[in-house]
Structure formats: C-alpha cells, structure tokens
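Take a look at the protein record below and flag anything odd:
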Amino acid sequence: MNKAFRKHLTDAEVQLIEETKPAALAELDEDELGDLHDRVRRASSKYRKLHRRQASAQVRSDRGRGKAAAKNPRSAVKAEVFEDALARVSRALSKAAKASAAELKAERLAAAKAGSAGPKKAPAPGQGPGSGRTPAKRRSPVVKKKNASTLAAGSRRQAKRDAR
C-alpha cells in the first residue's frame, strides 16, 4: 500500500488491508477467506457509497460532477484502496474454492470406485427403491426443482381457493 494512501486510513482499516496481502492470504483456508471477503466487501461498499453521496450532494453547488468528486479525496482514496483489497481477496477465495472442489471431486470419485468394487449395501428403511423417497444427499438439482415447482403450484391453487 502506498504511503500517500496510508495517511487517509485509520489503524483498523490499515490492519484490514494488511490482512489482504498475498502472504497473509496464503495462510487462510476457504472459510477464513470467505469471512475476510465479507469484511472487505462491507468496507468497500461503505466508502464507495459515502463517496458517491458526498459527491452528489456537492454537485449542485459546484455545478459539475467532476469538481464535486474531486472535493472528497479521502473517501475516494478509501474506496479505491478497499476495491483493490476486495479484488485480491476475491481471487484468493476463488482459487481456494476451486482447489477444495477438485479435492472433493477426487474424494467422491475414489469413494465411488471403492464402493463399486465391494458388495452392495442394503438400503436404509424408508429409502429403498420402492419407498418413493431418495435421501437428501442424492437428490439432483432437477429433482429438487421439480419438487419445488410442485409445492409452489399447490400453494397457488390453495391461494386461489382461499380468495373465493
């Protein structure tokens, strides 16, 4: 971070920016990166909104958006610094999510290979092929959507009846 930018930030903001340095990001896992991403995103939104509000309030007296925006350098600098930090954290979070997804996929494939070689297990009561119900873990997005659609249609029919 540039020293010129640092003078505009409070100690807590500097600490938050320091947490977004590449060396610090490398030590965090996916959940911690998600929490950091939320904190940085909130700060970024805060200063972006603040700068826009200050500039829009100043436009009428300055008779121009360019002049008005230049009158609030502190909030503009903070917005820019937090946008850069947010981009760094977003990239790190994306990489961590892709890595954990690949790891999970490998685990599932290994489990499927190991499961197909061994004897088949008996289904749990109420979850066999004739029960009409599959466990929540095995429901595909298509099945979930169909179920949600059916429930919504039933709710609409009931609301129509209630309106009579």
Summary: Residues 3-113 form one domain.
